[in-house]
Amino acid sequence: MKVQPRLLISIIFPLVISVLSLLIYVGYSEYKNNQNAAISQATSNVRIAREYLEHHFHSAQSHLYLLEQLWEEKNSIDGLMGAAQTIVSEKSKYLEVGLLAYGNYYGTDGFYREAVAQKVAKRPWYMPARAGQSYITPMYLSGSTGKWTVAFVAVLETVKQQEVRIILEVDVESLYDNLSLLKTLDHGYVYAVERGTGNIVMHPDPSRIGTPSVSVSRDLLAVIEEGKGAGIISSYEYKDKEKFSVYEVNDLHNWIVLSGAAKSEIIMHTFSISAVTLSLLVFILIIGLSFYIIHRVHIYGRQLSEVESLPELLDALKQMVEGVIGCQSIHLYMRNVYSGDFESAQCKHCISEKELRLNLASKLGRLAKLPEKQPDILSAFLAPGKACIRVPLTKNKQLIGLLYITSPRLELPFFINMLRTYAQGALGHVMLALRIQQTDAMTGLRNKNYLQAQIEKQLKAEAKCYVAMIDIDDFKIINDSYGHLFGDKVITSVANCLREESDRHAVVARYGGEEFAILLPAKDLLAAKAKLESIRSSVSGVEITDGRKSCRVHVSIGVAEVSDNMEKSIARADQALYQAKANGKNQVVIYCLNSMLQTTFAE
């Protein structure tokens, strides 16, 4: 039986229409998936940026409050400006501290203007306010520093019928350094717009600061004024590209924080996936499988973009790897921003960056199937004799992690690279969130919660470890004699000394107030004591000064072995610390089950 040409022609047209319809449907579905993933990632970026800015603005308010208290207690221009100079010298984000008093203006770095009472209303930081009030100014270009700034201003009680105000100027551009690491897709970024003026206050392009925002229109500002403090700007045009942004208003500093990307990026992602789908249409059986894998990758990717903690990241990453390519296990190593070591997220194992680069050289930054000719140093440790894939995770071309996939069932570079894109974005978010959560804002040391978590990890490890509780002797006398600002300098100076003198594998933390803690590995208690004696001696040798007054401080130290549980380990070290205080201070006391050993030093 012969098939008539017209019959073939009549079949071809509906078949082409069916295939094209299927492609359009698949392409639209993938576009929506990519769009939702990008919105989710942008929302996460905005949340992290808002928390980061709130953290620094609360810190600035705390410094302003301390200066207020100093003025109210001393009513001394020299005393307040000395303290202000200390703050500006130690905190790069602060540009200038100024004092308006007795009709004159006094600024840090020797800046002085006489008889400004009649001109002060024209200053950008001046706003009408009553005594006892404080406010945050809109952004302005500082005339004395030439930088974009936001000022925190406290209005104090008048003196001799003259206004008294303290002005703390914050460098807006320096605050943006860490936020520039947050990316939406490949090229999207976080930026901020001043709600009152609609001008840009934070942007990766410094020339845009102070100019009107394209994305925040008058209509959007009107919507915000009506109470809608968060949402999505679905479409706007910037540099001939159609873009979208997620926004959220921060009432603390009255800024609109935004993060978005070009829609062309979403389309490009969609086109790449659709191209793969089109090539697989020739093989009917593979169409369903490819569509299912891509669909699952996006689901896993959305889950990854929403994680907020390391355990959530590991669970989501394991599900994604097992669901996409299949494997026996995964191992994630994260770069410790404090020591530079790469630490395992699952177990107490780390390797220095130097050792890693010596072993891998130029191979470190590329995707690799192992063993090639031989396994690398980590795959040999994690999965000796097994096939393994090493996936480098980067942020702004800097290596932030290594993902090892052991015994993979599929070795498709396309899907592994998709997995890598989601994984490194999620890891970057988690690392920034962890850094904020684990760091003491005043000293830059780790905080109490991080220390306790590390002790819990050490209890599961085989190596001996010791916890030392450290207290600055007679700190209350220092505060009462020299003032709280000098007391803060004592705390930061001791913190710097502890950090410099401690082994890079030790965990140095601020436990609270003038109390610190060190978690350090050592072969026995005597070895731990020797290290702590060296630290105690180094602290005693540091002279702390602010240019006008100086002192030397001593510390008392109690140390105990990490055993039983975290609470008992810290309690034992605390008990030894109390004994050191009772025995005359400036000494190290070792906790033992039936007695305490100590060494006293006369300075």
Automatic annotation (TrEMBL):
InterPro entries: Diguanylate_Cyclase (IPR050469), GGDEF_dom (IPR000160), Nucleotide_cyclase (IPR029787), Rev_trsase/Diguanyl_cyclase (IPR043128). Its cofactor is Mg(2+). It comes from the Bacteria. Residues 463-593 form the GGDEF domain. The chain crosses the membrane at residues 7-28, 271-294. This is diguanylate cyclase. It comes from Photobacterium rosenbergii. One of its GO terms (cellular component) is plasma membrane. The keyword Nucleotide-binding does not apply. Keywords: Membrane, Transmembrane, Transmembrane helix.
